[in-house]
Amino acid sequence: MQTYPPLTSTPNVSKVIKAHDKPIGCIATHIRKKVLATGCDDATFKIFNMDNYEELGSGSGHTDYISGIDIHPKGLFLATCSGDSTINVNDLSTGKNKITYKDFKSIVWDVKFHDTGDFLLSCSGDSTVRLFDINMDKARNIYYGHTDAVNKVNFQPFTNYFASCSADKTVSIWDMRLGLTVQTFYGHLNVVNDVIFNTRGDMLYSCDADGVVKAWDIRKNKEMYLKIN
Amino acid sequence: MFPLSANCLQIDKTGNTIYVGYDKGKMGVIFPNKIDPNLHNKDRDPKYSLGSDFKVGELSVNGIGINLSNTQIYTGSSDGNIVVWN
Predict the structure, then answer these.
(1) Quick check: is B72 in a domain?
(2) Intervals of CATH 2.40.128.630 along chain A
(3) How far apart are CA A120 and CA A144, in angstroms?
(4) Total number of domains in chain B
(5) Do B70 and A34 touch (CB under 8 A)?
(6) Which parts of chain A register pLDDT below 50?
(7) How does pLDDT run across B21-68, given as a tens digit for each residue?
(8) How far apart are CA A168 and CA A189, in angstroms?
(9) Best mutation site among A207, A214, A221 for testing chain B: the one with the most B CBs within 10 Å?
């Protein structure tokens, strides 16, 4: 098991990079390479080398703001989703578009690659989560259950489960293969904006529009701590 | 209750620190666990605490990333800047 030095609890600014002229809506780092990708409200994305902070490339392809971005685990592709209700998957070696997914009824809020690199998960303002096989042009599975926009999704590390958070104030864990909700956590009093697993995959953290961060123990199926005061 | 919207979360690779991006350029640091994360759940300290918060800029923090070696934090915000933290 790889060990890491602890990150400081009192971080200091070491560099400020003027990446875009308009707001950055999302960023993604690669799990093995020193690159950072940003998605911007001007419908463009940029990729930076985080050794020397140089821009490695940029692109567009959307007609509205970029709301989510992720880098393929093998570094092959970059996925972006947008307010124009599409997902673009770009080939990073050629810079060309590999595939565009268009069958959404609303804004696509987030995209995430599975650890294997074979699947791409997305969530949308149409209350659905969709799973794509990146070699196919249609959704492999559509997950229904939330009653309002789904804002973020994240895979449990190295499993076939994922979590979603929604404007319906809930957080859900899903079985990717069965297409069913495994657990739903209630407790947020406002729109849930983000959800992440810890690296062990046994805890889930979510944050909402009230500024509350909640921790959920997946094994015990309960909240571990109520809110930050 | 924290008065600002929490927009994004990131957890460091040790699992000991969570970074939260808020509106108005704030980043919060939370320590979910003060003991060895490799211990079994039942041995964990159930208390979670807000460590501190930092001013990133004036506008919303919309994305947080952490580098490979767990030594740097990156924040992306509505002013178009990436801020690198050590």
Answers:
(1) yes
(2) 20-114
(3) 17
(4) 1
(5) no
(6) 226-229
(7) 999 888 888 877 643 344 344 444 444 444 556 676 778 999 999 988
(8) 9
(9) A207
Q: Which top CATH class is A20-114?
A: mainly beta
User: For residue B53, what is the domain's CATH number?
Assistant: 2.40.10
Q: Is residue B28 part of a domain?
A: yes
CATH of domain A145-229: 2.40.10.480
DSSP B56: -
B74: in domain? yes
Cβ A17–B82 below 8 Å, yes or no?
A: yes
Contact criterion met (CB < 8 Å) for B62 and A5: no
Domain with CATH 2.40.10.480 in chain A: 145-229
Quick: pLDDT tens for A177-224.
999 999 999 989 999 999 999 988 988 999 999 888 888 889 888 777
ipTM rounded to 2 decimals: 0.91
**What pLDDT is stored for residue A160 in this prediction?**
95
Whether B25 is in a domain gets the answer yes
Q: Quote the domain boundaries for residue B43.
A: 6-85
Which chain A residue shows the shortest CA-CA distance from B69? Answer: A4
Interface test with B, best of A27, A164, A199, A214 (most B CBs within 10 A): A27
**A127-136 own/partner pairs: CB under 8 Å, 24+ apart:** A127/A166, A127/A168, A129/A153, A129/A162, A129/A164, A129/A174, A130/A101, A130/A104, A131/A176, A132/A87, A132/A101, A134/A77, A134/A89, A134/A98, A134/A99
